[in-house]
Amino acid sequence: MIGIVDVGGGNRDIYGAGVLDFCLDNNITVDYFIGVSAGSANGVSYIAKQKRRNYCFYNNYAFRKEYMSIGEFIKHGSFVNLDYIYSTLSNSDGEYPVDYDTFINNPIDLEIVACNAITGNTVYFPKDKMLRDNYHFLKASSCVPVACKPYEIHGQPFYDGGISDPIPFQRAFDKGCDKVIVILTRPKNYRRDAKKDQKLSKLIANKYPRAAEMLGNRSYIYNTSLEEAIKLEKAGKILIIAPDEVNLNTFTKDHNQLDLLYSKGYKDAEAIIKFVGD
Fold first, then answer.
1. Quick count: other Cβ atoms within 10 Å of Cβ 56?
2. I need a labelling partner for 234 at 20 to 30 A (CA). Which of 85, 118, 225, 266 fits?
């Protein structure tokens, strides 16, 4: 079994969209996909075989004030309007709907990573529970702490899955994968700075102390997970696809930079052909 991990990273994950569009163009299919935050949206479009769908979101829709803006934060308490992205645009009557029939009938398994804001525990939402025009799991997984208020599903608040399991390759192995492709949106030598995560964690600590604890510890989890992934890459069990440099932050709006990052992802994905063929 071969799996793909897409770690997300907001608009930076146009890089992952490029990787996956290369896979679609070259009929590269896998058995399992696990996505974090924007990586979960990439996974849905890949499984639905909708090439360049996510490119359009990152490098077109993301520039709209309804998508993300200070105005949205003032009006609704979230800088990113997750309902606009994953309902208004993505539903059957939306501007660029998910091809749900192709998605649900594709044999590729999918899990979407989120963090329960109350318990701090990681939750893996399964593909077979994602209903037509009900993409709440994507919203939960993409709910960036501080920038967004927690997204509720059945009364339970959730934050971005990158808090608790930022590079979930172990989950892919636990689900039966023998080889795993890990898509990063930062260079392989990048390590998270603990100070930034700890500063952000204080802003949610009063209401969500467990999630704050996970957020404050995210840099350690990310960095140690990446070190382990690099070891497994040397053993031939993982292939890490990562940009050599990135000048974009999570919410960057720059058409040229986004185009370049998409093209880098498409080009770097050539390494996948040998990895899946060995």
1. 16
2. 266
